[in-house]
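One chain shown below:
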Amino acid sequence: MFKKLDFSQKQINKYYRAAKKDLKIAINSNISEVSFRFCYDALLKLAIAVCAKKGLRVKSKRGHHVALIKKLSSYLNNSEIKILANEMRSKRNRGLYSGGISISKKEVKEYTNWTKNIFKKANKSFFNKQQKLKL
């Protein structure tokens, strides 16, 4: 599912900035479904950035989202990531393939706050230990 690859710091930073941008959209949107989708995408993009930092590139195959979630969970030593991110993935899939879903503002707030905390941990562990996460 993954291929070894040396990424430049510039490319890793690009991935990380894209992830932070999606999280910022998720936090600032007034539309629950938009917030949820961008929150999930931000988490995946964060996983891509972390994997790139570790010299891994995910191959776009069936199940690659699950593989990214597992890697992020492993690298951050946080089993909760597998549980909640897979819950998000499942909801996203139902929304995409089953005609839509309804996400409450409360759910979105919980997901975005949780994801923000995952970003803080990743920022500290992989990206810039001295700098505060800016969204």
